Amino acid sequence: xxxxxxxxxxxxxxxxxxxxxxxxxxxxxxxxxxxxxxxxxxxxxxxxxxxxxxxxxxxxxxxxxxxxxxxxxxxxxxxxxxxxxxxxxxxxxxxxxxxxxxxxxxxxxxxxxxxxxxxxxxxxxxxxxxxxxxxxxxxxxxxxxxxxxxxxxxxxxxxxxxxxxxxxxxxxxxxxxxxxxxxxxxxxxxxxxxxxxxxxxxxxxxxxxxxxxxxxxxxxxxxxxxxxxxxxxxxxxxxxxxxxxxxxxxxxxxxxxxxxxxxxxxxxxxxxxxxxxxxxxxxxxxxxxxxxxxxxxxxxxxxxxxxxxxxxxxxxxxxxxxxxxxxxxxxxxxxxxxxxxxxxxxxxxxxxxxxxxxxxxxxxxxxxxxxxxxxxxxxxxxxxxxxxxxxxxxxxxxxxxxxxxxxxxxxxxxxxxxxxxxxxxxxxxxxxxxxxxxx
Length: 439
What we know:
Layout: H1 2-19, E1 25-32, H2 35-43, H3 45-50, E2 54-61, H4 63-76, E3 83-86, H5 90-96, H6 118-123, E4 125-126, E5 129-130, E6 133-138, E7 140-145, H7 146-152, H8 162-172, H9 193-203, H10 220-236, H11 246-254, E8 260-264, H12 267-271, E9 283-287, E10 301-306, H13 314-324, H14 327-337, H15 354-359, H16 363-372, H17 396-411, H18 417-435
Parallel strand pairs: 1-2, 1-3
Antiparallel strand pairs: 3-10, 4-5, 6-10, 7-8, 7-9
Helix pairs in contact: 9-10, 17-18
């Protein structure tokens, strides 16, 4: 009898313990501090309502710092993050190295993987395996002030050249009124100034390496490109251009201080949003400029979410990244903030949405720019690498950061363009001697 009683007490206690709600899983998400990601954090309460057992812990960082921290954690299998925000440089390299969870066969059938734009999906893959889900995709555009163009008697051509840009910048530049002819990235970093500068080098006929992997930073084409870029910003750019990255330039243009800005297509929605942009009704959109070749003049990028193999909660992480990159999430943003504010550039269905096409004058230009970008043939002359504004090799963050610092030094006048490119060539050669580059 006593044994039966003891067993009953044990069973009752065990049942009570099992019935207690389990503490929620905490997903640590490392992401970049731009507007679309901040909007996603605000809307993630919807995910929390659908998944009350999953708590989201956000680590929001400036993109140069984000890349340093997530790369270190992924390489060391540190397990600090359950979801990391990466792009088409990291996805294939980290996937090949076994740092990321392959996603294709783990996604729910409702995700509609075939709806993803092919250039973006290819950039998130390695060896036909998908390693990241794109949150938004982008190419590059020329933004310009239509009112300032009219006042100056200027007309933006259907395809501007860099000769046009210099002529327009000179006519628009009015520092006395705090308006500058052109705004361009100057903040050093492989994903900051070098993202834009590499497209300038590409369209001026340059390349990072020849077919034998010999660095080409001291070539005539790079001299022409960097000489043009430095001269343009020094004459017609805003003060302290070497401190300006994407976010800083977005703020400058929104506040009416830029006559033109050449940068990511993802900025279009913010510039067109009258709630945050003082020039929303005066923004014009044109393709990125070209010089001697259209190859590589416009970039291809995405920010996407990946799950490191070291994630402590991969199943929960998969649920989150599916939600954040789904068609349903795009509809949620449209419902709460308007169609022009949705994360663009990832899905065919987005560009078949009548409401989006009708309310976003930049939609079709963005789509055409993304679909025309060719990371397999990014330069006029043949190259052994892929990638347009990046070289998809593990060493690129190192060499991109070093060259970016030297270009910034030339921009502020600490050294000449010739000296900066000689030092850039030497820096890349040293890395090549040490690593052999391709890896």
